Amino acid sequence: HPDYTRTTFFRQYPRLEFERFVMQLKDKIALVTGAGRGMGRAISLQLAEEGANVAVSDIDASTAEDTAVAIKQMGRESVVLPADMGDLNDIHRMFAQVKETFGRLDVVVNNAGVTKYLDIMDVQEEDWDRIHRVNAKGVFFCMQRAARELIDQGQGGRIINIASIAGKGYVGTSNAAYAASKGAVISMTSIAALQLGRYDINVNAICPGSTLTNMAADTMSGRSERTGQSMRELEEARDARIPIGRPNDPEDIAAMALFLAGPGSRNITGQAFNVDGGLVMH
Description:
Distance between the termini: 41 Å
Strand order of the largest sheet: 3-2-1-4-5-6-7
Number of strands: 7
Structural class: alpha/beta
Shape: globular
Order of helices and strands: HHEHEHEHEHEHEHHHE
Largest sheet: 7 strands, parallel
């Protein structure tokens, strides 16, 4: 009974009553890249829901603006930062704008990424360069600049990199170039965690499996065109491979990002967490 819960249970455990109403990230400042849609949007909204003010970056300013509007409707502050994550000038400008707007930074989520369905024999140099420019180079230099800001502040912080189970050798990935770029993210995460730990900066990665995003839909469409299978057939085959029987929603990734940004993960660093319904049990 609701009255019993409030008057009896929480009288016995007042700390739980208190914690129910304390937002994990109250007044923290977060930056999320690729925040206009999909996982980036879900992560941005989840961080804001827990009290953070969120700077949202995306190469598509209009989608980032939509995310920022939703954040402001929650009563949080937000700023839109159009940026190409493969351009170092854009990266440095983005961090400068965050500092100018909010005065500090607490959490950075490197989510922006690109892919394309390509058979290994079809990968061209321009495909390799495009994918690694954003997924590996962009993540590294965002992580490096974030670390500089956090070290200067002297109060620690959290860096969360969105990798993929493809980076752990999952053979169902869209292409080899993408898998290599995400493997790079996992390796960079471990090295950064080792070298930044003395500054109380936690660095972790999230490795999504099949996730219902526009990018994933585009990849599946490419697979459908190449193989002649219908989208429905591919979706059914995808779900059958997942032990839990369903793909991720973007909010599943956001939940892990929230945990890694919050106080409960203060002693976790250098890890790459699978969120994949059991596709890769490692």
